[in-house]
């Protein structure tokens, strides 16, 4: 059977997933520029700092757009990134509606009695193994976990984390990268006197890595990919989510939109 033959893969995948989930909720570090000091335009786009740069690849430059909090920010951020990737916008009312439906979709997938999900490359995990691991991490039964997952954040629903992002990458068939503010990059920006304009981010992991690739990348001179007039984040197959510290023990998910320079 495939499940028995790939059991070691599944265990490795679950270990990787738990590690990444921990990365989403680490201890708060001393940041040079806390999130509370960021300034935003009325549409939620961060205007100070204006640019977010991948510390490992300066060619990856983003603008950041925030979403409402209240415990649904991960689902809202993925919804906004997806809409923007199709050249569409989304107001808070629409995003909340999508977030509610997204919660239900993720719960429905997790409660499937059989089937595999891709984490990255050839690393697979069964829906039931992922559900049991996620529930154990929260100290809940699988039934309690699914009930809490379907609730909105304002009702005490679960925050989105590694298990939910795994499902979403598979449902959307898109890679989803998770970033955090890089403490070394923050110091570097401060030394350069650019702390008001630049924040450096570090990619912590990718759900669906090397699996869900953009089909247009193989198209010669794609009309979508080859023109610089495309707005920030529009038509980006890859979704990018930034997780920031808002206070001790509290996290908030935002959207990173690839910038056309």
From TrEMBL:
Signal peptide (residue range): 1-31
Entry keywords, A to Z: Signal
Pfam families for this protein: OTU
SUPFAM superfamilies cross-referenced by the UniProt entry: Cysteine proteinases
Domain annotation OTU: ranges: 62-259
Protein name in the entry: OTU domain-containing protein
Gene3D superfamilies assigned to the protein according to its UniProt record, in alphabetical order: 3.90.70.80
KW Membrane (keyword) present: no
């Amino acid at each position: 059977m495939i499940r028995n033959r790939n059991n070691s893969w599944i265990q490795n995948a679950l270990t990787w997933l738990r590690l990444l989930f921990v990365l989403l909720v680490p201890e708060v570090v001393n940041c040079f520029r806390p999130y509370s000091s960021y300034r935003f335009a009325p549409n939620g786009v961060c205007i100070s700092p204006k640019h977010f740069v991948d510390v490992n690849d300066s060619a990856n430059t983003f603008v950041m757009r925030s979403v409402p909090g209240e415990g649904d920010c991960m689902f809202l951020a993925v919804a906004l990134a997806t809409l923007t990737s199709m050249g569409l916008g989304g107001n808070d009312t629409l995003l909340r509606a999508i977030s509610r439906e997204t919660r239900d979709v993720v719960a429905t997938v997790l409660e499937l009695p059989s089937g595999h999900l891709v984490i990255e490359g050839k690393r697979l995990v069964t829906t039931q193994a992922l559900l049991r691991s996620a529930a154990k991490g929260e100290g809940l039964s699988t039934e309690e976990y699914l009930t809490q997952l379907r609730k909105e954040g304002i009702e005490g629903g679960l925050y989105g984390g590694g298990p939910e992002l795994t499902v979403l990458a598979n449902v959307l068939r898109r890679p989803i990268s998770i970033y955090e503010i890089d403490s070394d990059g923050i110091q570097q920006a401060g030394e350069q006197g650019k702390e008001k304009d630049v924040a450096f981010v570090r990619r912590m992991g990718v759900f669906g890595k090397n699996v869900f690739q953009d089909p247009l990348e193989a198209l010669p001179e794609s009309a979508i990919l080859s023109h610089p007039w495309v707005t920030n984040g529009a038509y980006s197959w890859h979704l990018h989510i930034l997780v920031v510290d808002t206070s001790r023990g509290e996290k908030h998910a935002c959207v990173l939109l690839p910038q056309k320079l």
